[in-house]
Design goal:
Chain A: This is S-adenosyl-L-methionine-dependent methyltransferase. The complex is a heterodimer of chains A (about 375) and B (about 200). Chain A has about 375 residues and is of the alpha/beta class. Chain A has helices at about 5-15, 20-25, 30-45, 55-65, 70-75, 95-115, 135-140, 160-175, 175-180, 210-215, 230-235, 240-245, 260-265, 270-285, 295-305, 310-315; strands spanning about 75-80, 80-85, 120-125, 150-160, 195-200, 220-225, 290, 315-325, 335, 340-345, 345-355. Chain A folds into two domains: about 5-65; about 95-355, Rossmann fold, CATH 3.40.50. Helix content of chain A is about 45%, strand content about 20%. In chain A, strands 5-4-3-6-7-11-8-10-9 form a nine-stranded mixed sheet, with helices on both faces. In chain A, strands 1-2 form a two-stranded antiparallel sheet. In chain A, helix 3 (about 30-45) packs antiparallel against helix 4 (about 55-65). Chain B is mostly helical. Chain B folds into three domains: about 1-40, no CATH class; about 50-60 and about 70-115, Double Stranded RNA Binding Domain (2-Layer Sandwich), CATH 3.30.160.20; about 115-190. In chain B, a hairpin with a 5-residue loop joins strand 2 and strand 3. The chains are: A alpha/beta (about 375), B mainly alpha (about 200).
């Protein structure tokens, strides 16, 4: 990381506040230092505490200046219309995840609108759920679409970490008021149409998990997964310092013990979770599979990992970039894969591998 | 205070077809804010999504789990006019998207309607309020200073100076009022014109 010139610190002190100068080592530029200082002040103003506000601001600024991620300092991160609580030990939700989750919700809704009879239920399975940001945002976005008002929504989150599952439940309670069905829909029609959400603490590599999941729902509609996908060398080389020092390794790099498994299924150590999730997908046969990946190369590797069986099952295979909704109506971007057309959507880095049993209508 | 005064012209307004002519007369005689100013024009609607080019400002790099950005800035470009707006007001990107769209709508409103745009009218009202507040406080302190001065027996100079200032201030206020009145009449013209516009469409 290049050294910041002293002039930037002078300017922060003179033009914004001495506290902005304290934030600079973490924020790296004046604009974001000013923004973060404003957000810290806002947070202190909006929350109650017996400690005097000036002292609280100073403490939070000091913590952030040391390099602690702002989301851990303030305890929250906005995610769509939701506010997700963040605690050390659980990965902070990323804006890319927010973008593709909302895009997925719009796809699901479009699909429902096209079908003449809306299905009675829609079930979502989220593996490596962490803060539970993906299922929460999906449920929130879906239940606001009128075409899905008659559908009962169900989501299930799995995570290996005890802290994550506890935080996921906390987040469910924290956003409960946003998840209940809109009151305007007729009460007489359905007694309870609030989406249901459950969490289980389990390893996705455990052989006992699959029968349990099958018993929960005979047919899953959506399987989402944002697994640890960074390689050990990528972790040392590419990750930001705040990520490396403060976010859980468990959520970023596949466990070293699984490396043996990787050699078994002939894939890179950082792709071992995809191997397992695809194995699970072959059994559960969810209608859609959404896998977050760490870049273009990894996206191609995951597409390459699809077995003959899965290739036959999923008629649509796509790679989404960071903003899957952007650049709509532009020239189709397509990559060839073993005689199979793989559509690429959006702008930015390769972010998601998307599988769908049907074919996407309209472009 | 303001509310009381502005409701006065309404009281004097006779109910009936004649009130339109009386209304303008009364408005000329009253020095208070016209009632119509209290009802500001509605917030302009953002342009259709097809005319907007949206981009999320972030540094280059791997993104995803490897980076943890707090910057959620949203930049919009209105393709037909080339206007660019940016919002980084909140930590939430969806919130910033909304704010940026409102900003763009306001900017377009300014471009199309000029002095009759919502932002222009709002700033006019604010300016006027600040002016009258300043005038009141000046009057108050002049009075206080006057009392003090009487005790010290050298009030004349200060008094004169103060009066002169107030006179200027009042003239400026009248000027502002004149402006708002013209914008008002223009607004009326516009509302008359819109049905024709609809017909041609």
């Amino acid at each position: 990381m290049p050294r910041l010139p002293p002039s930037v610190f002078w300017r922060a002190r003179r033009e914004i506040s001495p506290m902005a100068a304290q934030l600079l080592p973490a924020c790296r530029d004046l604009e974001s230092a000013a923004n973060e200082l404003r957000w810290i002040r806002q947070h202190v103003r909006d929350t109650r505490s017996p400690i005097p506000p000036e002292l609280r601001i100073w403490k939070l600024v000091e913590k952030r200046g040391r390099g602690v991620p702002l989301q851990y300092v303030l305890g929250t991160q906005p995610f769509g219309d939701l506010e997700i609580k963040c605690k050390p030990g659980v990965l902070i939700p990323r804006p890319e995840t927010e973008a593709y989750t909302l895009y997925l919700a719009s796809l699901l809704c479009k699909d429902q609108a096209l079908s003449t009879t809306p299905p009675p239920s829609l079930s979502i399975l989220d593996l490596c759920t962490g803060t539970a940001c993906i299922p929460l945002l999906l449920l929130h976005a879906l239940q606001r679409y009128p075409s899905l008002s008659q559908t009962s929504l169900y989501a299930h989150g799995i995570d290996i970490s005890r802290h994550a599952v506890r935080l996921a439940r906390l987040n469910q309670a924290h956003n409960n008021h946003l998840l209940s069905a809109p009151s305007s829909s007729s009460i007489s029609n359905h007694v309870d149409n609030n989406p249901k959400l459950n969490f289980t603490q389990a390893s996705i590599f455990s052989p006992n998990l699959l029968p349990i999941l099958q018993s929960h729902s005979p047919q899953w509609d959506v399987l989402t997964c944002n697994p640890p996908y960074i390689s050990a060398s990528g972790f040392r080389r590419d990750t930001a310092r705040a990520v490396r020092n403060y976010e859980p390794r468990l959520a970023l790099i596949p466990d070293a013990q699984l490396a043996g498994l990787a050699s078994q299924c002939k894939c890179q150590p950082e792709d071992v979770f995809y191997a397992r999730v695809l194995e699970m997908a072959a059994v559960l046969q969810p209608r859609r599979v959404v896998l977050e990946v760490g870049g273009w190369a990894q996206a191609l590797r995951v597409v390459d990992m699809l077995s003959e069986e899965l290739m036959a099952l999923y008629r649509t295979v796509e790679i989404w970039r960071d903003e899957p909704g952007a650049g709509e109506g532009r020239k189709r971007e397509v990559v060839e894969f073993g005689g199979r057309e793989v559509r690429v959507r959006g702008e930015g880095m390769g972010r998601v591998v998307y599988l769908y049993q049907g074919t996407e209508e309209g472009g | 205070m303001l509310r009381q005064l502005s409701s006065l012209p309404l009281l004097f307004r006779p109910a009936g077809p004649l009130h339109r002519y009386h209304g303008s007369l009364i408005a000329r005689f009253t020095t208070t804010t016209p009632a119509s100013l209290k009802q500001l024009p509605p917030r302009p609607k953002p342009p259709p999504e097809s005319e907007i080019e949206e981009s999320f400002l972030k540094g280059s790099g791997p993104g995803g789990q490897k980076i943890n950005k707090t910057n959620s800035a949203v930049q919009l470009r209105h393709i037909p006019t080339g206007i660019v707006v940016k919002s980084q007001a909140t930590r939430s990107r969806s919130q910033n998207r909304k704010i940026a769209r409102e900003l763009l709508a306001a900017r377009l409103d300014e471009l199309i309607n000029g002095t009759q745009s919502r932002t222009a009218i709002v700033s006019e009202v604010k300016k006027k309020r600040a002016a009258s507040k300043a005038k009141k406080s000046r009057r108050k302190y002049r009075k206080l200073a006057g009392e003090k001065g009487r005790e010290e027996k050298n009030e004349e100079e200060e008094e004169e100076e103060g009066e002169e200032e107030e006179g200027q201030e009042e003239a400026r206020l009248h000027e502002v009022e004149g402006k708002t009145k013209t914008t008002e009449s223009n607004n009326a013209q516009q509302t008359q014109a819109t049905p024709q516009g609809n017909e041609t469409r």
